[in-house]
Amino acid sequence: MTADTNTGTRAEAPAGAATGTTAAHPPAPRRPVRAVPLGPRSLAALALVSAVGVVAFGWPFLAPPASQLSAHAEDAPWLFAGLLVLLVAVVAATISESGLGPKAVAMLGVLAATGAALRPIGAGTAGIEPMFFLLVLSGRVLGPGFGFVLGSVTMFASALLTGGVGPWMPFQMLAMGWFTMGAGLLPGRTRLRGRGELLLLAGYGFLAAFAYGTIMNLAGWPFMGTLASNIAFDPHAAVPANLARFAAYCLATSMGWDLGRAVCTVVLTLALGPAVLRALRRATRRAAFETAVTFDAPGA
């Protein structure tokens, strides 16, 4: 304590100056904030919807040629689309109950609206879709639980905004949920920063953009019927023959689009990633998602 010669009051010395506690005990590093923690029920719901999603996307290669499912190749995508809508809704509700508080809901709404608004910017132009880089960075900062919900909600909102509602929408919601959740599962969330983190996110965005396009090709491929005999799904053909047809279908219909999406994601991640990551982390710290909201009693 030191005396103030002008006022006669006593001024406090800087905290830790006399005791040296600041130097001896540096502040602990901030732990990453997960806006939506994944509890046992959330993990079980995600595992269930992912397992059903794998079947919904990959049934052309899982069902034997003589099975009843292959006999209804034209109807199967519609059935799986209806099922996925219900399952994605169940997963979102389960994760919400496990910790999606009002602050997380607010950030979810802002990010989903931003992503939905970004999607139409490059629509129809060589796969230029800036929405993907934002979802990669958001999943990285806010974790896999928030990432899955954000990816699904963003795709749903963008479908409503662009008029892209159809049997493919539930598949898009699930695939985008996986895409964004994967960014939250990347290693080094607490320690990796700077150029190393940007390169990791850019590499993930590049590969995941191709994976997203390939998965969505699986959802649309069976709808072709027999209109294009060389690349269409043949319910009576063996798996190797259908794999060759599917590879030809991807090369003929979406390779250029997927490459444009991947390159756009990498460029935007490297160019805007540092600023966006800082903004997301600052907003997350200020929101203090893990701090419960309390209200003082009247007259307290």
Show unreliable segments.
1-23
Q: Helical proportion?
A: 55-70%
How many E strands? 2
Oligomeric category: single chain
Largest sheet: 2 strands, antiparallel
Specify the structural class.
Answer: mainly alpha
How would you spell out the order of helices and strands?
EEHHHHHHHHHH
**What would the average pLDDT be, to the nearest integer?**
75
Order of strands in the sheet with most strands: 1-2
Characterization of the model:
By secondary structure, this protein is mainly alpha-helical. 64% of the residues lie in helices and 1% in strands. It has helices spanning 21-24, 40-62, 68-71, 76-97, 102-118, 131-162, 169-184, 195-220, 239-253, 255-287, and strands spanning 2-3, 10-11. Strands 1-2 form a two-stranded antiparallel ribbon. A hairpin with a 6-residue loop joins strand 1 (2-3) and strand 2 (10-11). Helix 4 crosses helix 7, helix 6 (131-162) runs antiparallel to helix 7 (169-184) and helix 7 (169-184) packs antiparallel against helix 8 (195-220). The radius of gyration is 24 Å and the shape is globular. The relative contact order is 0.13.
List keywords for this structure.
64% helix; 300 residues; globular; mainly alpha; disordered N terminus; 2 strands; 10 helices; single chain
Question: What is this structure, in a nutshell?
Answer:
The chain has 300 residues and is mainly alpha-helical. The protein is built from ten helices and two strands, in the order ββαααααααααα.
Describe the secondary structure blueprint for this structure.
Elements: E1 2-3, E2 10-11, H1 21-24, H2 40-62, H3 68-71, H4 76-97, H5 102-118, H6 131-162, H7 169-184, H8 195-220, H9 239-253, H10 255-287
Antiparallel strand pairs: 1-2
Helix pairs in contact: 2-4, 2-8, 4-6, 4-7, 5-6, 6-7, 6-8, 6-10, 7-8, 8-10
